Amino acid sequence: MAIDTKSTNASPDERIRQVGSLSRLLIRPELGAVVALVVVWVFFAIVASDNNFVSWATTAAILNRAAPLGILAIAVALLMIAGEFDLSIGSVVGFAGMAIMVLVTSASSGGLAWPLIPSLLAALLITLGVGLFNGAMVVTTKLPSFIITLGALFIFRGLATAIPRTMTNRTQLGAFDTIPGFESINAIFGQKIELFGSRFDISIIWWVALTALATWTLMRTRVGNWIFGVGGDSNASRNVGVPVYRLKIALFMTTAFAAFLVALMQVTQFKGADSLRGELQEFNAIIAAVVGGVLLTGGYGSVIGAAIGALIFAMVQQGIIITGVDGDWFKVFVGAILVVAVIFNNFVRQQAQKR
Amino acid sequence: MASTTPILEIKNVSKYFGNVIALQDVSMFVRAGEVTCLLGDNGAGKSTLIKTLAGVHKPSEGSYTFEGAEVDFNSPREALDMGIATVYQDLAMIPLMSIWRNFFLGSEPTRGWGPLRRFDVDSAKQVTREEMSKMGIDIRDPDQPVGTLSGGERQSVAIARAVYFGAKVLILDEPTAALGVKQAGVVLKYILQAKQRGIGVIFITHNPHHAYPVGDHFVILRRGQVYGDFTKAEIPLEQLVQMMAGGADLEALSHELEAASQEGEAGEELAEAAELFRAEADEG
Questions:
Q1: pTM of the model
Q2: CB-based contact (8 Å) between B167 and chain A?
Q3: I need a labelling partner for A227 at 20 to 30 A (CA). Which of A177, B97, B172, B198 fits?
Q4: Is the CB of B129 inside 8 Å of chain A's CB atoms?
Q5: B159, B163, B169, B171: CA torsion to nearest 10
Q6: Do B94 and A239 touch (CB under 8 A)?
């Protein structure tokens, strides 16, 4: 006995053309990225068939590469949908890793010799402070975030080099695995999981979980609606009561948090930090987001798309490595394939919207 | 229906930006269930006045009372929370977002609690559809991006939104400015509907022909000052048009135009073009 209470509202309007489920799917922002992912995979599966591209070992290597970039790309995508850039995220990865290591390194080596957990919390607070600084600067000066965070890119890379060199005389700090409590931190952030005879980083689980969380936030919460609104038109959003400034600051702190997470994973994995860690990741993360369908001008995009963008990026990197192409050509290929992916992505989107 | 005490009133409000006097000594009010039309040409200070009423700007001098109490807004949100909703001319809607996302932007309904508190998407879509049909608009698909709607439809979504969220005073910034005749009529109909629901409407326009049919009260703004303040009974439409443009100015302008068309080269061209046009029309 179902009474259809909705029938009056749900009656189809004669002005709605019945759009096939395929066309509806094509309008989704991440679709171009999904197609590009398949194309890149098939390409390498053919070209690198002699080099075991289609294997668990290669799949593990691709995912291990994609996970840290993907975690950064998620945060960058949210920020870009809200209409801002963060060019400092790569430097902040290096800075956060160094912050952790300077805090835990023994006094005899020039460090502060703090216990592990307080060190991590302090490094987290410092890193969130970087995000707060970036966000507050963007909001108060009203300068483009491109400029502010370009400055921050140099500032925090500089600090990540200068501070440890002043204190410890080195720009690489190791022996993180000798710190009491390393094992439990490693279990959460750094361990490798044996599966199908290959080693998968635990960061893959973080990446997938954070993608799901960020997608839910973007699509199904008030904050998500605000992100789209602010990216689409920040004045209009402010006029209807969206806390634009607080939202932007929070998103800059989110990218800083992502940088901290990646830094902690790398410190755990490599048992130490290097001042140069995270170099170029700011651009790679933006590329991943754009390949994933995030509009450079804001207001449109998807987190899943950005995650797929990171996967494509890693697949291209790994594919080129295993085909044994000379390392000098590596960046040429990465750049070219990514530009093609974005053009293709845009083409698919335009075709989909025309129907 | 109209009560005697104004729901919103400003007295002797001035607003300065550095050495620029944007508003000087402006007083106006609106009663619940009435439409106060704010008329003024470009540069008369309408925008500044709206932004002051909406909580974007603070008045440099003067008082602002709402429901009998003096108010001092730090942000548009505070004004909105008290029931003063502003629908802006150009930035009412975000084109890339769907209708239902726009409808609830900044005031999203939620369900669940704690970290699981989430945007109630289903009810948002349903309410959007219902509220729009209450205003007589049949939206095709709430998932449609607002960018695909016509100008009048967008204004209507914005007005329906403000009414739904319990606006006591609705400030409409030139809602009919960029619209065709028919669509402007549709928007005027919503203004009357809002009025009948007991909302005080402040309708900003530079078109007296749009203002006169719906207005109860007319305030004419010129060069940052109140130039005239009339009830509908006090002023016929023709006089309102005259006042609005500034009678003397308009007369001077028409003389200038006449002179130009008689003497100037451009005038000759105009006359020729007019003749050509007439000839063509005759042939057709």
A1: 0.78
A2: no
A3: B172
A4: yes
A5: -10
A6: no
